[in-house]
Every structure is written in C-alpha cells, then in structure tokens.
Write a structure and sequence with these properties.
Layout (H helix, E strand, L loop, with lengths): L2 E14 L15 E10 L2 E7 H7 E8 L4 E4 L1 E3 L11 H9 L6 H14 L2 H17 L2 E7 L6 H11 L7 E9 L10 H10 L1 H4 L5 E6 L6 H13 L3 E6 L7 H8 L3 E4 L5 H8 L4 E4 L1 H6 L3 E6 L2 E6 L3 H10 L3 E4 L13 H12 L3 H8 L1 H6 L17 E4 L4 H6 L6 E6 L2 E5 L2 E2 L3
Parallel strand pairs: 1-4, 1-5, 6-7, 7-8, 8-9, 9-10, 10-11, 11-12, 12-15
Antiparallel strand pairs: 1-2, 2-3, 5-16, 13-14, 16-17, 17-18, 18-19
The chain binds zinc ion.
C-alpha cells in the first residue's frame, strides 16, 4: 500500500538539501543527492531521498519528471527595498562614467520625493510586477523594507502595501524609518529619531522587523541602539544596514542587540567582526551592490560624492566567512545601488567578485538566508517538515546555475507544493 501525496518530483539529476544553518568551513559542506526525488503533501515536504525508493513508497496526484534537471530549495531574499517609485538609471550613468555627484543619500532623497507623490495603487502594481520577476527567478520568500517615505503617512503606506500583497511570494515587511534624514529634518536629527520611534507602535502592526542604517552618512550606533531597543519593546525583530561607507559600529551593535541580521559590512572593524563571528546574527553580504557600484565605495567629501576603490573584496569576504559568522547573500534590490531582484545575478557576482565557492553560495542563498528572516525551521532546505517550496532548473548540475550568466535558468517553481512558475513564467490561477 503506497501513501498518497500531492506531488512527487522524481529523477532529479542532482538535488541539494541545504539542511542546517552553516558557519565557517561548514558553509562549503554541500549535500548533493543524485537521481533523487521529493514528496510533498498538504503543502509540506514529507520525504526526500532516492528516486527508486520514493516511487515505490508514494502514490502522487501529480508526478513531475525532473530527468536531466537540478532541484534545489527556492531562494530567500532577506534584503530588498521592494516598494518605491522611480528609476535612478540616469544617476548610475553619471556614476559609471565618473561624473562627481551629490551623494548616495541625495539619490535616496530623489527616490523619497517620487515615492511620496506616487499613488498607492501604482506602488502596489509596481511591487507585484517585481514580485513576479523575483518568483520567476526562483525567490519565494522576500523581505521588503519601507524607507522611501520617511514621513508618517508614506512610511505607513509602504508597510501597509508590503504586508498586504496577494502573491505566491511570502513578503516579510521591515520598517526602515531610519534610512536617511528626510529633507525637512536635515538640521534636526534628534527630532527625526523621535518621529521614527513615535511611529513604532503603528509600524509594528505591519512590520516584522525594524531596520536602521548605521553609517557615517546616516545614523550613529547610539541612534541605532535607541531605535532598535524601542522596536524590540514593541515585539519587533531587529536588523541593521551596517558599516557600508565607513566603520560606524553597526555590526557590533547588531551582535549586542541579538539582531536577526546586519547587512553590507564593507567597512566592518576587526573588533566588530569578532563580535559578529561569535553571535547568532546573520552577516548579509550584497555583491550585487559591489557589481553595480562598479566595485567602488562612495565617500562624501564637502558634500560631493567621491568614489574610492573598495577594499580587496575576495579577502574581505573570506575574513567574514572565517570569523565564523553565519553568512547569507541577498539582492538589496533598490532603485539606486542595486536594481536587480534576481538572486541568480547575486550568485554570479558572489563567485566573481567575492570568490565564494559554489557550495558556499548555495548555502548563503537558501538555509542561511532563511535564518536571516528567522525562518530556517520552514524555508531554505529540502527536508521533511519544511514548506514544499523548490526550484526545478533547466540545467542538471548546481554549478551551472552560478557559472552561466545573463539569462534565467529556472524552469519550474513550486510553492507549498503548487506549480507557480512553469517554463520560467508565472502561472496564473
Ligand atoms: Zn538596503
């Protein structure tokens, strides 16, 4: 007597399980099953193993033949600025061609102006279009920050949108009121920090997390501590944009606060790296930003952005992995510094610019990324009991997904055992 299940994906040439949050050398220890199958019932994975075993054990309503194909967990993208208006492609041309311009924060203020004047339905429709693209490229859980409103009405509007999008991608909203100082508060940071904190009770109705940009061009570690502790008292988790354009103590603060993640880290101090390596805070690195910012880091000199060469990124990334920190990769999808929402692009950039191995990269976009959103108990791994979310690729081997670049290698995506992408296109239902 065979057990009934909803879906049986069979005959996968390779299947990556990605079980267990990874640190240090463990990041590279990848389990690859061959000629493998996976059974899903009631939205959850019930079994993973040899195809010959599972075929004799289960009767499936839907059987999917994955011969000649790779099967992996779907992606968790734990850092995006999904909901905003406007495109800053002209700004990027100036940056790429070396024309001095007014600051990374100035660019964010341009996006704030466009976002404040955008109608809610326009923002919502644009977010859905981008979620479709993310899903078609293999992402099924995605964090979405506010931070392009920076006033009471718009911040809450962005969080309301992020928390109510009807889509197969699970969206996890984050309140980023402390992104930069909005134009009306440039000379009164304390008043703005007070406003950010005043909004916490309402923001916490929509947002799972609170985020602060702790950086020389944004908020201090003391600002970050005040805001984050207040957020925690409202039941919110904490994550931080930390040490992107200069060391500001954000990474160490994240470890101190028990933050779910600290993100960027390009200018992390040695002392903060020690704290991070010993903590359970996930270190999210963002190679899409390194790629798009032409491997340079913006620094402000007399109000004008100067682009300095970044530190040697492969050795920087290796130091973070060797510290023992839980390393994850994310897109940082945003209109200025990283306008891609494809985790495949991020994987290629991680290999090319950070010299991470294929095995390290796969763990960093699946189980470790899920841990950054406190969801590694149900997402990011192919193991019994987890959500039935996975990708069936158009190629047979996991290295090919990272080696090939510039086009989408997804064939099918399943969410809760339902086929939501087929032939790399979202299925309508
Ligand atoms: Zn960001």
């Amino acid at each position: 007597m065979r057990d009934p299940v909803d879906v049986l994906v069979m005959n996968a040439t390779e299947l990556l399980t990605c079980v267990g949050v990874r640190r240090g050398p463990g990041l590279a220890d990848l389990e690859v099953l061959r000629n493998a199958a996976i059974a899903i019932a009631d939205g959850k994975i019930v079994d993973v193993g040899a195809s010959t075993d599972l075929e004799t054990r289960y009767d499936a309503a839907l059987r999917i033949d994955a011969s000649g194909r790779l099967v992996t967990p779907s992606f968790v993208d734990a850092h995006t600025h999904l909901v905003h208006a406007g495109s800053r492609h002209d700004e990027w041309e100036q940056r790429a061609t070396g024309i001095p311009r007014h600051g990374i924060d100035g660019g964010i203020r341009w996006s704030i102006a466009r976002t404040r004047e955008a109608h809610e339905e326009v923002l919502r429709a644009q977010a859905i279009i981008n979620l479709d693209i993310a899903l078609e490229h293999g992402t099924t859980v995605l964090e979405a920050k506010s931070g392009y409103g920076l006033d009471r009405e718009t911040e809450l509007r962005l969080l309301r949108i992020a928390s109510s999008l009807q889509h197969p991608v699970k969206v996890v909203p984050t309140y980023l009121g402390a992104h930069v100082l909005p134009p009306e508060y440039v000379d009164d940071k304390d008043a703005y920090v007070t406003l950010v904190m005043d909004l916490l009770p309402e923001a916490s109705r929509y947002a799972r997390y609170c985020d602060v940009w702790v950086d020389p061009v944004a908020f201090t570690a003391d600002d970050g501590r005040r805001i984050s502790r207040a957020a925690q008292s409202h039941g919110m988790g904490v994550r931080l944009h930390a040490d992107q354009t200069g060391p500001a103590g954000g990474s160490g603060l994240g470890a101190e606060l028990g933050a779910s993640s600290v993100d960027h880290l390009e200018c992390i101090s040695d002392a903060d790296l020690c704290l991070l390596g010993d903590s359970n805070t996930v270190a999210i690195v963002l190679p899409g930003v390194t790629f798009h910012m032409t491997e340079q880091v913006p620094r402000m000199v007399d109000g004008i952005e100067q682009l300095a060469e970044r530190p040697h990124m492969p050795s920087w990334c290796r130091r973070i992995i060797n510290s023992g920190a839980i390393v994850a990769l994310a897109t940082d999808y945003n209109p200025g510094t990283c306008p891609t929402i494809s985790m495949q692009m991020v994987m290629q950039a991680a290999a090319r610019l950070y010299r991470m191995s294929y095995a390290e990269i796969w763990h960093a976009v699946t189980v470790n990324a899920a841990q950054a959103l406190d969801r590694s108990h149900r997402n990011g791994s192919l193991v019994a009991g987890h959500d039935g979310d996975l990708i069936i690729w158009s190629v047979p081997e996991h290295g090919m997904v990272i080696n090939r670049f510039g086009y989408n290698l997804v064939d099918q995506v399943l969410v809760g055992g339902q086929v939501v992408v087929a032939g790399a296109r979202r299925v309508t239902w």
